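Closing statement on the uridine-diphosphate-N-acetylglucosamine sub-project.
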Amino acid sequence: MSRVDEDAKKWRRDVGLNSLFSNTRPAIPRILALLPLAASLTALSICLPPDLRPLALRSCGIGLGAYLTTVHLVPVISKKIPRSKFGCDLLKRPPRLQIDNKDKTIPESLGLVSGVVFVLALVISDAIEADHVVDAHTLAAATLAIALAILLGFADDILDLEWRYKYALPPLMALPLLAAYSGGTVIRPPVLVRRYLTETKLGDVADYLLKLVGGSVVPEAMGLVDLGRAYQVSDSEQKMNLNLTWSRRWRRCGAASRRRRRRGRQRIYMVLLVVFCTNAVNIYAGVNGLECGQVYVIACAILAMAAIELQHDRSENYTLSIVFLPPFIATTLALLRSNWYPARVFVGDTFTNYAGMALAVVAILGHFPVMLLLLMAPQLINFLVSIPQLFKLRPCPRHRLPTYDERTGLLRCSYVNDRVKITENDGMNLTLINVVLRLKPMTEPALAATLLVLQALCCALALFLRFGWAGGIY
Ligand code: UD1
Ligand code: MG
């Protein structure tokens, strides 16, 4: 074994494992990890109207079952992953070393386990809740979209698809969702816009223009805006479906989906949201615990938001989140246990794909895409910072991960030269992770914890903007 290899091992043991956030000191990461969950459960127990509490309890019960199943299955399935599908833990070794097969020690794609358990949990929810509080058709379409995302993500892990295919897949995964989408055409603009619409002549002008597309500024509704055909599709058709048998419902779904697809141009934002969410999670990754951790924090924030909203707004938009999110949070948390530093499994593109899809699904069916973007501020910033490399305006290596410094045992930001080789100080790899490390080099678990605290702060700020500040911007 070379000297450098020995050094790397020594630092991993001495510095990484003794970090405050490493697994050898389990209390701190575990307490931190439970905070978002505790916050969302508190919001559920305080804010949820009494008649929705049984729904939340059933959902949390299904979530608990999903958590235990995933915790049990991850080690079992990880032993069955073939050696050829193992990955190398890149941040435990200096970048200049060649990666041999013997360095690939961590089983990949374990997102498959949490994903399949999540889908099964959704199927159970669908059987129990269908048509009581959420529309069975919508829930079935959401489940199908997630299942497709798992399938295509797993195909990506196995086949190592090129980026052009990765961009092409999300719209395909979004098809069931687009077919099912029947949301109302009324939107709620921010307070400032609503004030202009109700108190100035702008309201009359907007009303006139909206009438051209079958919409209006909703009378007596304090500035709510009905976008009519500009938003698309009355939901009467879907309501009729509720009285049909499953098979007829699916047949009608097929016919309706063909009609709706013709109107698809108006839904481009949905496809863009799915493309953004799946890719944004995937490129904000590569640090043990970061993939699962970020998604877990965002999902907890959405659950808390849905609970608060349901105090005033009893629409299906938010009840869907109550059904959908507890099993999602539970399976993600179970996967995080094995993916936290030092990772025993990698989640793979299977996870990033279906997790991004799940966030997009709740936002689209819940009618809060802008709020989701606020909650995903770190992913958005990482995407914006990455644009020069993503669009090949600057050299983009296969991995833009930080560099492991064998001398100090800390991670530093990484640089790349014009021949797409990682170097000491050419151009910095443009990621938020590298920006944070440029401010302060740190160990891998400390970096993951810092990025997750940043994520939690962004979510708290987004919720504060929505509910706290002078009644919120909405
Ligand atoms: C995206 C990023 C890439 C980053 C990778 C990490 C872009 C354009 N692509 O590529 O820069 O390096 O994700 O996931 O931004 N790995 C670790 N530790 C972890 C997780 C993953 O070392 O905690 C490594 C493993 O070698 C694993 C590999 O990352 O095999 C997985 O990479 P993959 O998901 O295939 O990369 P991409 O999604 O293509
Ligand atoms: Mg990936």
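The pocket of magnesium ion (ligand 2) is lined by residues 282, 285, 349, 352 (CB under 6 Å). With this model delivered, the sub-project is considered complete and its resources will be redirected to Aim 3.
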